[in-house]
Design a protein that fits this description.
This protein is an alpha/beta fold. It has two domains: 133 residues, Rossmann fold (3-Layer(aba) Sandwich); 66 residues, no CATH class. Helices cover 35% and strands 21% of the residues. It is built from seven helices and nine strands, in the order βββαββαααβαβαββα. The strands form two sheets. The chain has a six-stranded mixed β-sheet with strand order 5-6-7-3-8-9, sandwiched between helices. The protein has a three-stranded antiparallel β-sheet with strand order 2-1-4, with helices on one face. α6 packs across α7. The longest helix is centred in the C-terminal third of the chain and has 18 residues. The relative contact order is 0.18.
């Protein structure tokens, strides 16, 4: 007997967002996000990927349409990982990770267990007392991911977190992110410009058009997660990359 499909975590229903008198940043976006899914948002600069993340995070409100959360899921804030780690330079790694819990009113001692667990999850237990200036770029991003996970959110929003890293570090963090996701069961929405990264990471890829951003196509990546060793060298991976590249070229040719 087949397993039932995952429950929807949230639905976007014809969501649009405009700013002032200019053209809208996004328009008419409808999407269902499934519990436990890894969804990549792929598109050119300026297509509204970050705007869409901010709407889902509740940092701004839609101009049109609505975002409907599953019962019991709308009250908890998503974890958010930015392109820049945005760590406080005067605070230790542990205190940076403590910040979301501190804002919830938890004292350092009260939050210590959750902070230690988040640091262990990203492999930073040994540098808990270090300051961000002592860390490599990859380690700083791991600290930012730990900070996003410390509240154990059901949804994690990631806005091109690995774009500024070298290719070797980026590949390693891609692999580690899938392992973290498998261990936590979190649902992830991941913004990227990279076809190759989106195919490696995602269960589904939402290919977006230029401004106003719309979802032109949703592509499912039929491969197990975490991805098996050698997946990047497989014919299946190459075929998916070709399919997604073609879809992105088509989306970029769409007239507003």
């Amino acid at each position: 007997m087949a397993a039932p499909p995952p429950s929807p975590l949230l639905r976007l229903e014809r969501v649009g967002k405009g700013f002032g008198s200019g053209p809208p940043a996004i328009a008419d976006i409808s999407l269902e996000l499934r519990e436990g899914e890894f969804l990549a948002l792929l598109g050119p600069s300026g297509c509204g990927k970050t705007t869409l993340l901010r709407l889902i995070a509740g940092l701004t409100q839609p101009s049109t349409g609505r975002i409907a959360w599953a019962e019991g899921a709308g009250g908890a804030a998503p974890g958010y990982v930015f392109q820049d780690p945005t760590l406080m330079p005067w605070a230790t790694v542990a205190d940076n990770v403590w910040l979301p819990l501190r804002l919830q009113g938890q004292r350092r001692a009260q939050a210590a267990g959750a902070v230690a667990e988040a640091l262990a999850l990203v492999g930073l237990s040994d540098v808990a007392d270090a300051y961000p200036r002592a860390l490599s770029g990859g380690m700083r991003m791991r600290a930012a991911i730990a900070r996003a996970l410390v509240t154990r959110p059901r949804l994690v929003l990631m806005d091109e977190p690995f774009a500024a890293l070298d290719e070797i570090t980026r590949f390693r963090l891609n692999r580690e992110l899938l392992e973290i996701r498998a261990r936590t069961g979190a649902t992830v929405i991941f913004v990227t410009h990279s076809v190759f990264e989106s195919v490696y990471l995602a269960d589904r890829i939402a290919v977006m058009t230029p401004q106003p951003g719309r979802i032109d196509r949703l592509i499912a990546i039929d491969a197990p997660t975490p991805r098996p060793e050698g997946f990047r060298n497989s014919e299946r991976y190459a075929a998916c990359c070709r399919e997604v590249s073609a879809a992105l070229r088509q989306a970029m040719a769409v007239e507003a």
